[in-house]
Amino acid sequence: MSNIRLTSTVQSGGCAAKLSPDILSSALRNLPISRHPNLLVGLARPDDAGVYKLSPEIAIIQTVDFFPPIVDQPYLFGQIAATNALSDVYAMGGKPITAMNVVGFPASKFPLDVLREMLRGGMDKIQESGAVLVGGHTINDTELKYGLSVTGTVHPDEIITNSQARPGDCLILTKPLGTGVFTSALKAGRVKQDGMKPVIKSMLTLNRIASEIAVKMKANACTDVTGFSFIGHSYLMASNSRVSMVIDHQAVPMFDGALELSKAGFVPCGTRNNRRSYQRYVSMPKGLPEEMVNLLFDPQTSGGLLISVPQNKAQLLLQKLRAKGIKEATIIGRVIKPGKKRITVI
Asked: Which of 106, 167, 192, 196 is paired with 186 by a 20 to 30 Å CA distance?
């Protein structure tokens, strides 16, 4: 399989990975929203996953995520896609318990070894999370796609949503930005696999430990930073919480080399979609370099958690994260009362 390029099947430079936020919002606008006394988190206030209460002690978290390959090694792609899908459960403060494979496989283009290795990668990450693979669904597709449908559990009183950030909170980001520009550069041959090591290590790191610490520290709000970008997910948290946020762009962690790749033009189409959807809600300083702006809107794969925590707990939470090996965790901003813009970058 050494000569097989999984990414060569991706259409339109990977734009099939996610509909733009504006298109998705328009499609959902006039659809009825499900409401039920036990539906604790649903489409009425969109979050990273849905949450349904089964009993006073147990609620289930449900999510699904899949996308085309961003690397050429089937096993590695399977690991990354599974880690990304599991992240939504962690963002809600939960524990994954079951997973199901979601696969689109072009059987006429690839040998079955590709499918086998991809599923093996996913299985390894499912097992690492402590969840159990219970099945899945596979179709013969024109483009390779893989991900998981994941069910998790959480105590109804310990759910962390993206709608409870409070003025005075500090904002902590647990992983650097830049996976989008790096994977774009990898597909174009600008960077080699060895140059991707820090990025791949990050994409393979479960958000489990960060989630557990956030729960123990009683964080007010949390979201995982994925395809809608750091700005997009920050906006959704600010909007759902009815607050505004101030982001210090110099504090936001970036992968080494990400700014250079962004400046060189390795900008995913998802970045342009995110800018079109969210830029109107953001105030940027004059003269902020375009490469920095693009990284703030860069679609992330298996990104970190954005945690909103009371100021008096922020340093302790940060210390606990770093003590557990999450060295890139950084305070990158603060929550303020609602202003003219949901996000102000300084």
From this structure: 106
